[in-house]
Design a protein that fits this description.
Layout lengths: L2 H25 L6 H4 L13 H14 L4 H13 L1 H23 L4 H14 L3 H5 L2 H14 L1 H10 L14 H9 L3 H20 L6 H18 L2 H7 L7 H36 L7 H15 L13 H15 L6 H45 L4 E4 L23 H8 L2 E4 L1
Parallel strand pairs: 1-2
Helix pairs in contact: 1-5, 1-6, 3-4, 3-13, 4-8, 5-6, 5-8, 5-16, 6-16, 6-17, 10-12, 11-12, 11-15, 14-16, 15-16
């Protein structure tokens, strides 16, 4: 086997191993919290009974709650089709995200793939919430992977890839960009802003702008507008408390800085270390290779200034883009084969240990919540009017806390009670 074929085979094998590990983790992540809400149609209040129900549900959801119709439709489709379908599809989508990181980094080899997975697994503090939990994964794994596609199209258009052509070759970018814009508020806005700045830069430099590229950006902007202008967004925003404009902006900026540090602080520190190392070794880094993902990461985080609610999981794309930028820098530093093999071995060991810990934590979390579910099902089968169960705390980055209220009519108790046909009270 030639060297190139051996590298491709190793890459495929590593991709398969990561996919299997993610599938196992997904199999042990139970339905929780919002999953019960989205198991019902927002239009009829009944359990989902078909794809038509999902579409009608999302039309009502758009009016009542929010504009992330694409990702919430995915969540409801998977809840209708069943966890088995989701477990397979989600593991595959995680691999797609890793391939996107490699593409943005400009490197497609086993070490880059391993490092991308290792950095996500070992440094993202909310890994389980955004990559394993059904509703969270549809919002943030699937939403991020789709939202980043226009960046890959731009990289291809500028670097001799599939989209570096005129005419019909660029036509698929238009509908894909529309869907990419209709995914996640801060990520979609950040990516759109980055591409608009890139377009302005090219125009100033006199670079020819292909018509399909302008059309794709317009479609992406339309997707963002459709998402942001959902009536449900305004209904939710009106319920949020305000501190006054200036105080609110200062508060949000502080929260954004803190969440960025928590989600990507390790990666940013490694990036600074790589730059310092390159300077000491007098290696001329081409920083422009990391510029686009860094710009998109900064703008995605900054877009949250306009959001009434800021959660740590909203920084999924920030972490992903910073990892892509770090790997783009690392790929420019030449190391010996022995050093490269040693580094890969260390990362493989860390990934193996991290995966074992993740599987242990997720399995224990599954058992703890399943015990409460069995109590609910047993009480419902016995015809009892009400059952009291315990919340399930989370102490791991691979799981998510299940918090129940003492009031059976409070959320999420009321939806859980509706799901199982019995009033549920938290301890």
């Amino acid at each position: 086997m030639s060297g190139a074929r051996a590298q491709r085979a190793c890459f495929a094998l590593l991709l398969a191993l990561i996919g299997v590990s993610m599938f196992l983790l997904n199999c042990h992540m139970p339905l929780m919290m919002d999953d019960y809400d989205y198991s019902f149609s927002w239009s009829t209040g009944e359990r989902l009974a078909g794809v038509g129900d999902v579409l009608a549900s999302q039309a009502a959801h758009y009016r009542l709650w929010g504009g992330r119709s694409v990702v919430h439709a995915l969540a409801q489709l998977f809840l209708y089709w069943g966890e088995g379908v989701f477990n397979v599809a989600n593991a595959l989508m995680y691999l797609v995200l890793l391939l996107e990181i490699c593409a943005l980094a400009g490197r497609r080899d086993g070490r880059t793939l391993l490092c991308a997975h290792g950095l996500l697994l070992l440094t993202v503090p909310f890994f389980g919430t955004v990559f394993l939990w059904l509703d969270g994964a549809c919002n943030y794994l699937w939403g991020t992977a789709l939202a980043l596609v226009p960046l890959l199209i731009a990289k291809s258009e500028r670097g001799g890839g599939f989209f570096d052509a005129d005419g019909l070759r660029g036509a698929p970018a238009v509908p894909v960009s529309f869907l990419a814009g209709w995914t996640n508020e801060n990520t979609a806005c950040g990516v759109l802003a980055a591409l608009l700045l890139l377009l302005a830069h090219d125009a100033v430099k006199g670079r020819r702008i292909r018509p399909w590229r302008a059309a794709a950006l317009a479609a992406q902007a339309l997707g963002v507008a459709v998402m942001l202008l959902a009536p449900g967004n305004f209904a939710r925003a009106s319920e949020e408390a305000t501190r006054g404009f200036l105080a609110e902006m200062i508060y949000r900026a502080a929260v954004i800085a803190w969440c960025t540090l928590c989600s990507a602080g390790v990666v940013l520190a490694l990036g600074a270390a790589v730059v310092l190392f390159a300077r000491r070794r007098r290696v001329a880094l081409r920083l422009e290779r990391a510029a686009l993902p860094v710009l998109a990461a900064v703008l995605s985080a900054g877009a949250l200034l306009g959001s009434p609610q800021i959660s740590d999981r909203s920084f999924t794309a920030v972490a992903v883009l910073c990892i892509a930028a770090l790997l783009a820098l690392c790929g420019q530093i030449a190391v010996s084969r022995r050093a490269a093999a040693g580094g890969a071995a260390v990362m493989a060991l860390l990934v193996a240990l991290g995966t074992a810990v993740a599987l242990r934590d997720v399995t224990a979390h599954e058992a703890a919540w399943q015990a409460q579910v069995e109590r609910i099902e047993a009480a419902a089968k016995a015809g009892e009017a009400e059952v009291t169960v315990a919340s399930v705390p989370s102490t791991s980055r691979f799981t998510m806390e299940v918090t129940l209220q003492t009031d059976p009519d409070a959320w999420p108790n009321r939806t859980l009670g509706k799901y199982y046909g019995i009033r549920v009270r938290g301890q």
